[in-house]
Amino acid sequence: ALLALLSHKSWSVRAEVAETLGLLAPLGDAKTVQTIASLVADSHSGVRSRIGDALVHAIQGSPDMADEAVSALQSRFTHPNWAVRQAALAGLKAVMTAQPKKDLGLLTTVAQLISDDSTKVREEALSTLMALAPGVGGGDR
Questions:
Q1: 60 three-class SS
Q2: Of 134, 125, 47, 62, nearest to 98 (Cα)?
Q3: Residue 7 belongs to what H/E stretch?
Q4: Cα–Cα distance between 44 and 15 in angstroms, integer?
Q5: 26 secondary structure, DSSP code
């Protein structure tokens, strides 16, 4: 019943459902993690902005689910809508801050988004890199 509300016309209902899914997700439930991550493509920024926190709750204590979330978010880095790319980066930053993991390939992929056509995506990519790799940009010398 809860999943049916993900298509509700009200963005605030969809956002609340995303948060609730994150809080109620059974440990190790890849389908729930993928469902939450897919909401970065929602048409409303209010929903997209809540995905990071929802994912952090859904992956707590499970490195495998963190990997699942990272993979689902990374698949949105090439989405045609800049707002979706930005939300995917913000979600990635939240997930990787909650469950840090050294992944040079992922950092390289994020670094490539610094040359994105959208200023918002470039700014989010830089912010994500700085959060995941302290010292990037010279802030922590």
A1: coil
A2: 62
A3: none
A4: 9
A5: P
Which amino acid appears at position 141 of this protein?
Answer: R
User: Residues 98-132: pLDDT tens digits?
Assistant: 888 878 889 999 999 999 999 999 999 999 999 98
Cβ atoms within 10 Å of 135's Cβ, excluding its own:
9
What is the Cα 117 distance to its own chain's centre? 20
Query: What would you report as the CA-atom Rg of the chain, rounded to the nearest whole angstrom?
Result: 15
pTM: 0.85
HSE of 32, CA atoms in CB hemisphere, 13 A: 23
- Each residue's pLDDT tens digit, 73-91: 999 999 999 999 999 999 9
End-to-end Cα, the chain, rounded Å: 51
- Which residues lie closer than 8 Å to 40 by C-beta, 6 or more apart? 48, 51, 73, 76, 84, 87, 88, 91
